[in-house]
Amino acid sequence: MNKDLTVGKPETVLWRFCLPLFGSIIFQQLYNIADSLVAGKFIGENALAAVGNSYEITLIFIAFAFGCNMGCSVIVSQLFGAKDYGRLKTAVSTSCIFSGILCMALMFAGILGCGPLLALIRTPEEVFADSRLYLDIYIWGLPFVFFYNIATGIFSALGDSKTPFYFLAVSSVSNIAVDILFVKAFHMGVAGVAWATFLCQGISCVLAVATVWRRMKQIQVEKRPPLFDWGLLKKILIIAIPSILQQSFISVGNILIQSVINGFGASVMAGYSAAVKLNNMVITSFTTIGNGISNFAAQNLGANQFGRIKEGFRAGIKMVWCLCVPFCILYIFFGKYLLLLFMEETSAGALAAGREFLYILSPFYFIVSAKLAADGILRGISAMGQFMAATFTDLILRVVLAFVLSDWLNAATGIWCAWPVGWTIAMALSVFFYRRACKKFKMADL
User: Fold this and answer.
1) pTM for this structure?
2) How far apart are CA 277 and CA 185, in angstroms?
3) What angle do CA 56, 62, 65 make, to 5 degrees?
C-alpha cells in the first residue's frame, strides 16, 4: 500500500521501505543468474560465455528502462510528498506514453544493430551465433522490461516497496523452473534460456501494470487530470536523461571492457560472466537501496522536510555497510563454490579468472556502497549535474585503466584492478557533492 515517507523516525522508515526493495533486487538478479547458471551447467562453457557476452549489450536497453523508472519515480515522489494528486496522475500517464515511444525506437535499433555490435566487441566465432540468438529474443521482450520498470518506479514513489517484491519473488522462481524445463526437457539450448526470461518478465509486467492502474483509480481528485503534460515531461526528463546517460555510459564502458576480456579467450570470458553476475547482484542491491534513498529524499523535499534527508543518508550508509559484510565474507572465502554453481570444476581457467575477480573487487564494496548512497540523495533532490560528474569519473577511469593495466600486465588481472580505483575516486566526489548539497538546503546543521 501507499506510504508517506515524510513522517516517522527517518531511520526506521527507510529501513522498512528499503528492505523489501533489497529483497526485490535479489529476485531480479535471479533472472540473470538463472540464465547463466542453466547455460553453464546444462549447455556448456561456450553457452555461458554467450549469455554473459549478450548480457553486457542488454544492459544498454536496461539503462533506458532504468532512466524512465527514475525520472517517473522521483517526480511522482515529489508530487506525492506535496500531496498534488492530480499532477501525480498526469506524471504517471506522461511517463507511460513517453516510455512506450522510446521503447519502440530502441526495439528498431536493436533489431538492426545487435549483430554489428557483437562483431565490434570481438565476439569469438564459437559464441557469436548463440549471443545473437539470445539478443534477438530479448529485444522482442523490451516492452515488458520498460513497463515493468515504470510500474516499480511508481510503487516506490508511493512508498510501496512490498508489491514489486511479491511480483519478483514469484516470477524469478518461475523463471528458474522454466529455464530448466526449456533447456533440459525441450533441449532448446540458449534460445530456451532467452524464451524463459521473456515469458516470466511478460507475466510480471502485465500484473504490475494492472496493479498500478487499479492503484491510480483509488486516488481521488476533483477533476479528471490530463493524460499528458509537456511541463511534467520536462521535469521527468531532467531526472531521466542523466540516469539514462549514466547507465548507458556504464553499459558502453562495460562493453568496451568486455571487448578487452574477449581478447583473453572463452575461458576468461566464462569466468568473468559468472563472477560479474555475483558482483552485479551486490552492486545492484546497493543501487536499489540508493533508489530507495532517492524516493525518501524526493518525498521529503516535496514536503520541505530538509533535515530528514540528512538523517536518511546516515541510515542509508548503515544499511549498505551492513550488507557489505556478508557479501565480502562470501566472495572472499566461498567464491569458488559460488562460481561452481555456474560451471564444472574442470573449467580451471574460467574458475581461476572468476575467483581473482571476486578477490580484488569485494573488499571495495564499502567504498562503492557509500558512493551509491550519496548518489541516491543527489538524484532525489534533482542535483543531476553533480550526480553525473561522479558517475562518469568512475566509468572513464575504469575503462581507461582496463585497457592500460591489462596491456601492462598482459593479463586479465589488470582489468579487474580498474574497478577499485574508479570506485574510490568517484566515492570521494559523490560525498563531496552531497555535503555541498546539505549546505545549499540548510541540512548540515539539522
Assistant:
1) 0.70
2) 25
3) 165
